[in-house]
Each structure stands twice: as structure tokens, then as C-alpha cells.
Amino acid sequence: MTPTPIRIAVLKFSHETVTFLPYDTTTADFTFPGSPAKGEALLQSEPTSYIGGFVKVAREYAGVALVGIESPLDSKAGSGSGWLTEECYEGFVGTMIAGLQAEGPFDGVYLSLHGAMAARGVPRPEAELARRVREFVGPKAFIAATFDPHGNEDEAFLRHADMAFTVKYFPHYDAHLQGERAARMLIRAIRGDYAPAHVTVKVPIISPTVLQWTGASPWMDLVQRALVWEARSPDTYVNVFFGFPWADVPDVGMTFQVLTNGKPDLARRVADDMAQTAWRLREALLHTTKIHRIADAVTAAKTAARPVVLADHSDRSGYATWLLQEIIAQGLSRTLIVSVTDRPTVEALGDVKVGDRFDRHVGGLADPSAGQPVHIQGVVLAVTAGQRRDDRWLHVGFGNGNVLVVSPYLTQVMELSSLVENGIDPAAFDIIAIKSRVHFRRGFDDTGFAKTILLVQPDEPFLGTTRLEGLTYEHVDLAAYYPYGDVSF
Ligand SMILES: [Zn+2]
């Protein structure tokens, strides 16, 4: 029997907003060749990630039509910019709703989201998007979304949407899998085979992302517990939002969502179990990774087993020079620094040639967390394509076998292959200094490459610090969260 044809709209609006950065995220950040995207271009925009998984599985079903609604792709600045302007948020959401109106009606809508978007004047941007989509598609259609575990969500999202599927691992290995699930469950719901019954529980724990590595306990144990619930109760899905503390938003912090097939009691039981488990583990959750002072780590790197990775987890703009300053001050050699962001420098050297002398101040000044510019005298070794659209890496050799990469955007190197693709042999360096919290573990730790990993942050509690009490929140009462107040749960 041929199934009744169904139509599903696919939308994307994804951002992890660091609201403590002094410059806003604007429409221009999401606008570049290929973005916004619609139709097949949107559906093919991320083959190994959320939308890729969604499209792959949706197209295994007969009678399912997917419609890519005009949506912005990932911001050029990644996570390195502040509040979305009202114009940016309203502009893109308005385009999406207009797209739905032009292409509708729909039986279902898939939203590819992040969850840590923060927009001026919109307290819960993802829930607000779901609300407006619901307003258009009506109560009968189903809305499913995928999320990053760094999302800050509360019960508002599933008040308007029916289903959510959140990546479990950090590094985020399972984005494609969650996209696949969203497709399967959305189609089953539309065809009457899944009746989403869900519970959302917020747990008053706020934690810096550098501590949230799921490759080690107790974060690994939380993931494992969610997987066990999914294994023992078919049709149950457990979302663990670790939360993103650098967004000053009312729904910041840890959240669990549990979905079941028409079993609200089961959803409640599982959600309470997950929440109580996290609360029991709260002290251990906050004491996972040692964070070093930059000066101490650079000293230690001189004699530590090689290769050494120095990871400045706290730089949120990309412009921070603290680690570079210390590398120079302590005279490190054979050290690769990827990267220091300096858009004006990259733009000013538009037609630079390999072998040109480089004599400029780089980085710093974007905000207090970036520190001072650093004077680098060296030689241009290469100009390469970087690791995403609209990127460019300027490679500068200086000192004793050191290479500094200057980039136009915050650069988080996750895989060794992204160095190799830019002509850098990681094995040629004793020390590799990067800007990453946990994602670098894909290429540098899970592969066994790094013999020593030292996570660092500046002494001052700048905006990416693990010392959240040093930040000025306006929409969050830190004292209502463990470990910053006398909180019961
Ligand atoms: Zn994330």
C-alpha cells in the first residue's frame, strides 16, 4: 500500500551566543556566498551533521517530500560574537515564516537548532521560533528539532514543539545520528505511530564548558545513563543539555528532556532519575579538568612529554594573545600557534606573497579578554583556505621554528586533518597551542596524538573564564545555581 504523501519543511537557525562579547551578531555574520540557503542547497548544506542525518533517513521513506525553507547557515564568526541584534533575529525568522507560507501547507517541520542562541529582546529565541512556526502550521502538524548539548532550554520549547533530539557527546560526535532520529520520529508521529509525551526538568547546575568533556566521568556517566534508559525503554529519548554559561539568558544551565511514545509517567520517571543523578554528582561534575595558569603551563610544556597541546579554553573572540605572549616570553621553540584572530591584518595583507617579511602587531584589543597586540617579526610561509567558508589562514614563521597562524575568525582546531589540509604537518612541532575547550580532543586526544594536554586560562576572570562569579550577569541569578549559592533541589 502506498503511504499517504506527507510534506516536511526543513529550517535552520543555529547560534551559540557569547553575550559577554561587546560586539553584536548581525545579519551580515550569517550572510555569505551560499547563505542563506533554501531548497536542495539547504538540504545538502551539512551532509555529516544534523540536516544531513535528517535528509538521509527522511528520504528512505516513500511519499515524503522535503522542502528546504530559506534559512541562514552557521555564522561566519562561529561562536565568537555577542547578542543577535533584533534586526538579525526578526529578519531571519520573518523570512522563514514567509517561506513556510509560500511553500505550505506542511504535515511536519524540522528545526535544526543549537539552543544557546541569545537575541536582544527575545528571552528564549528557539522557543519563540517554535511558537511562530506552530502559529503557522497549526496544532495538527508535528514540529521536531535537533539541538547541541550546550543549549540553554527550559520547558518553553516543548510547549510549542513536539520533539527534540540533542547530541549526547562532547566532542559532538552524534549530530548526524540525532538528525536521523528526528526524521524517523517526525515521520512516525505524522503517520500516527508515535505520540510524543515529554517532560522537561531543569537542574540548578551551571558549569563552564571546558569541564563538560564526556570522554571522562562523571559527564560520561550521565551520557551512559541516558543511553541505558533509551536502550531499556524502546521509543524513549533522553536529552541532556549541559548548558552554556556564557549566554546571559533566563533559561541558562542544565536541562533534561525526556520523550516517550504516549507514556507521560515513564517520561517523568526517567527525567527525575536523570536530574537526581546529575544533582548527586554535582560536586564531581565541577571537578573534572585541571585548568592551569598560562605561565605555569608554558613552563611545564618545555619539559613535558611531546607533542604537547596547550589549549586556551577561555578565548571567546579569538583575538586573545595571552598564550602567545607567554610563549614568546619564555622562548618556546618548534611551537605552532593556531590561531590568533586578527581580521584587519588578514584583510590588509590581501595580496601578500610567500617569503614576504611580516612585521606587524597582531591580535588583542577586541575586548579586555583579548589582551594587548603582540609584535611579530617573521616571514610569510603560506596563505591557505582555513577551515570553513570565507576563512583564510596567514602562516607566519618566527623565532626558533615557530609558526603563528593569523585568521579572520575565532578558530577552533578539532582535527589534525584541518592542519594537514592547510599544509601544516602537526608532527613537525613539539608544542601546539590552540583555542579550544573540548572539541580539540577529537583529533588530539581521542587519536592518542598528544602526549601531554594542558588546558589554560588567563589569571583574570575574563568572559570565557571558569570563574563565572567574575562575570556580570543581568538575566541570571548565579546564587540560584550550584556551585554559586546554597541551592537545594
Ligand atoms: Zn556544543
Descriptive account of the structure:
With 489 residues, the protein is α/β, with parallel strands linked by helices. The chain has two domains: 6-285, no CATH class; 291-458, no CATH class. It contains 14 helices and 17 strands. The strands form three sheets. The chain has a nine-stranded mixed beta sheet. The chain has a five-stranded parallel beta sheet with strand order 2-1-3-4-5, sandwiched between helices. The protein has a three-stranded antiparallel beta sheet with strand order 6-8-7. The structure holds zinc ion. Zinc ion (ZN) binds next to loops.
Q: Gist?
A:
The chain has 489 residues and is an alpha/beta fold.
Question: How many E strands?
Answer: 17
Q: Helical region count?
A: 14
N-C termini distance: 52 Å
Proportion of residues in extended strands: 15-25%
Helical amount among residues, as a percent range?
A: 25-40%
Poorly predicted regions: none
The largest sheet is:
9 strands, mixed
- Please, how many domains? 2
Q: What overall geometry do the principal axes of the alpha carbons give? A: globular
Which structural class do you get from the secondary structure elements? Answer: alpha/beta
Rg over C-alpha atoms, rounded to the nearest angstrom: 23 Å
Mean pLDDT: 96
Give a topology summary:
Layout: E1 6-13, H1 39-43, H2 50-58, E2 64-68, H3 86-103, E3 108-113, H4 125-137, E4 142-147, H5 156-160, E5 163-166, H6 175-190, E6 196-203, H7 219-232, E7 237-241, E8 254-261, H8 264-280, H9 282-285, E9 291-293, H10 294-303, E10 308-312, H11 322-329, E11 335-341, H12 343-348, E12 357-362, E13 374-384, E14 393-398, E15 402-407, H13 416-420, E16 431-434, H14 441-444, E17 452-457
Parallel strand pairs: 1-2, 1-3, 3-4, 4-5, 9-17, 10-16, 10-17, 11-15, 11-16
Antiparallel strand pairs: 6-8, 7-8, 12-13, 13-14, 14-15
Helix pairs in contact: 2-6, 3-4, 7-8
Bound molecules: zinc ion (ZN).
